[in-house]
Amino acid sequence: MFSIIKRKISTLFSDFEYYVARWKHSKNLLALEGCDRNILKALKKDGVCVTTLADLGFNSSSELLKAAYHQLSQMENPKNDHLDEKLPQISTVTGLPEFYAWGMEKRLLNIIENYIGLPIAFHGVHLRKDFPSKHQFGTLLWHSDSEDRRIIKIFIYLNDVDEKTGPFEYIPRSLTSLFSWNYIRLYYKLWKSGYRGIDDEEVKTVIPKSAWKSCPGPAGTVLIVDTKNTLHHGIVRTEERSTLFFCYTANPPERPELCTQYWDDTYPRAELRQQIENSR
Fold first, then answer.
1. Which residues on neighbouring strands pair with residue 223, listed in sequence order?
2. What does the buried/exposed string (b/e) look like for 73-109 if buried means 16 or more CB atoms within 10 Å of the residue's CB?
3. Kind plus residue range of the DSSP H or E element containing 64
4. Alpha-carbon span 197 to 42, nearest angstrom
5. Which 8-state DSSP code applies to residue 33?
6. Number of Cβ atoms within 10 Å of the Cβ of 28
7. What letters, b where the CB count within 10 A reaches 16 and e where it falls short, cover 41-67?
8. pTM for this one?
């Protein structure tokens, strides 16, 4: 009992320090203009902003896409047709300059820092293929991420995404405000699952499907998402989907051990593969 009380007090003190740090850092945040301010408003309202590479207008976008499609062509066939649950195929591309340059665009960093409210860390980039599935498992279940109190992940579609290819889907934060009855019920279900995720049928008992927001879009669609505070998942798909995942948190994050996957050897690293190819 004493250890539980001690842990609760420690958590409350840590949260208090976090909010004080955000308050102190607020004076350092750069003002946003135009579409960047609209992105921030969307994140604060519902936890998600949907835009496109063209609308963002970064000079580095053309090189990013060129590098992404080249890396996709280099990913080996996973030979997973016999599996009932096909795990995503992931390549870490953080070490390649085209991906790092896009992830470090100054306007993008300013938007993210304004939302997170603290100095930020860019952890890296995954190139990811998701495969057809007949049922929900893994990230197809509704879930929230755990790296930090606020997390920004940016998903870029590399092919046209519709119901067949399984778009990103989320519940607007305006429907699950902190400590609302909807919030309590959904996150209790998530806790009961061991934070592995909950399926559509469980979510429907709290939030009707008509209120869920699906995000189909053509190649080049960009989703900017607070994946900690926005319940989300990928829709069960019948065709393959390819995306880029960029990850940002406060610096340092609450759980840094969960962020190492974007630069360590958890997944094959594209820059190592490229070095081997160049040496031949």
1. 50, 155
2. eebeeeeeeeeeebebbbbbbbbbebbbebbebebbe
3. helix 61-74
4. 25
5. -
6. 10
7. ebbeebbbbbbbbeebebebbeebbeb
8. 0.95
Decide if 198 contacts 190 (C-beta within 8 A). Answer: yes
Q: What is the rounded CA–CA span in Å between residue 232 and residue 143?
A: 6
For residues 224 and 160, the answer to whether their CB atoms sit within 8 Å is no
pLDDT of residue 278: 57
The b-or-e profile of 136-172 (16+ CB within 10 A means b, else e) is: bbbbbbbbbbebbbbbbbbbbbbbebeeebbbbbbbb
Where are any strands of DSSP class E within 73-220? 89-92, 120-130, 152-157, 168-170, 213-215
Strands 232-234 and 213-215, by their bridges, are unpaired
Q: How is residue 262 written in tokens?
A: 């974007």
Render pLDDT for 181-236 as a digit per residue (tens, 0 to 9).
999 999 999 999 999 999 999 999 999 999 999 999 999 999 999 999 999 999 99
- Fill in the amino acid letter for 159: N
CA atoms within 13 A on the CB side of 67: 24
* DSSP code, position 269: B
